[in-house]
Amino acid sequence: MSSTRENPEMPYRTLGRTGERVSAIGLGGWHIGFSHQTDADSIRIIRSAIDRGINFLDNSWDYNEGVSERRMGQALRDGYRDKAFLMTKIDGRSKSEATRQLDESLRRLQTDCIDLVQHHEVLRFEDPHRIFDEEGAQAALTHAREQGKLRYIGFTGHKDPRIHLYMLEVARDHGFTFDTVQMPLNVMDAHYRSFTHLVVPELVKQNIGVLGMKSLGNGIILRSGTVTAIECLHYALNLPTSVVITGIESLENLEQAFEAARTFRPMSVPELTALLAKTAKAASRGEFELFKTSSLFDATTTNPTWLGEEPERLQRLMPK
What we know:
Layout: E1 12-14, E2 21-23, E3 25-28, H1 39-51, E4 56-57, H2 67-75, E5 85-90, H3 95-109, E6 114-119, H4 127-132, H5 137-146, E7 150-156, H6 161-173, E8 180-184, H7 195-198, H8 200-206, E9 209-213, H9 229-238, E10 243-247, H10 251-263, H11 269-283, H12 290-293, H13 299-302, H14 312-315
Helix pairs in contact: 1-2, 2-3, 3-5, 9-10
């Protein structure tokens, strides 16, 4: 669990109503598990990030077949775990599968307690119902929190802001308020199926921690030729985000993240308008946000078994 020590190289923000102080930029877990890197490379990146003030670490049970969590667990040895706010995600929708994945994440990350666990890839309108079923994943995370295996609960998704709003609605119907919500927040999103316009205001209203991801769209946004990486990060930092999670697969990427943090200043309305005008045409059909308009980023679509079984009582309703 993260210490209160803050590094002058990095601004810090409050994570919703949790009161936790987290770095404005977080280290994305997918990128530190790539096969072209060695374990030593990834450990060096993670520890360098923490040494310089990034305390929010993102990960997921399914990233790189567990390599991302395993490497992060190795990096958090030797006192580094106490300096980090550690987050991971699980894909399981059933209680049993969510429990299995969480326990596996705990082993890989070499910790007894994960600061934040999120329901991953809420992409379909049925996902909230499966998660909040009495045999669903939320029951698993609630029980795990009671056992001290995790501290906070959130959810993520990258497909459609209306699904995020529906997840919040279903949670409210079950008397639950999430601690965090993670979604794509970038200069293209502002123009197309926008999480910025539809979801962020509701999270601010409920004082739920806003986690921004895909600020560069896995680099695809830069291929539009309309904006720079620093402009992308500045835009996301200008939103009421608690953390902007960005992929850091090299020390050069790490330097870029700190440059964005160091040079960020809140944007004036004319500055923001001018930046968004540069991306309006390219963003109009979602072609640079493939996570919204294709299934290429949908790991649980490619691997449906990760979701687990439907509730048994619902299966009994199906005709034989």
